[in-house]
Amino acid sequence: MNLGGQPTPPTSPEPAGSCSPGSAGTPGPAGGGRERAGKKSLDRLSPEYRQRRERNNIAVRKSRDKAKRRNQEMQHKLLELSAENERLHKKIEQLTRDLGSLRHFFKQLPPASFLQPGAGSDCR
After folding, report:
1. pTM surpassing 0.90?
2. Which one, of 16, 44, 22, 25, lies nearest residue 34 by Cα?
3. Region labeled Disordered — which residues (predicted)?
4. Domain that holds residue 87
5. Which of 5, 21, 59, 70 could cross-link to 27 by cystine, CB 3.0-4.6 Å?
């Protein structure tokens, strides 16, 4: 833990001519603040930096395409389920109407007319 307000010295020697942010004698994290612990700073013109940026751009593109595809699949599934829901609601309405018709039909029959022995086959 660094309590003196001075930058922590590097764990490995820095190459001559390189100057990392925060190591120029400025106290604390206010001396650039861009460098993260455990990551080395890369020159924006270096081939390694360009290669990392290109790989990152490809990964970002792939991630966004995947998210877009997932969103489209969800939209498609939503349409399918909405259509099925509508179909099931219509079936419920039809079955409710059929039930009402059958109840009305059986109320019109004389009492016990369908319970007479030998009047038909056993409906169990």
Report:
1. no
2. 22
3. 1-73
4. 43-104
5. 5
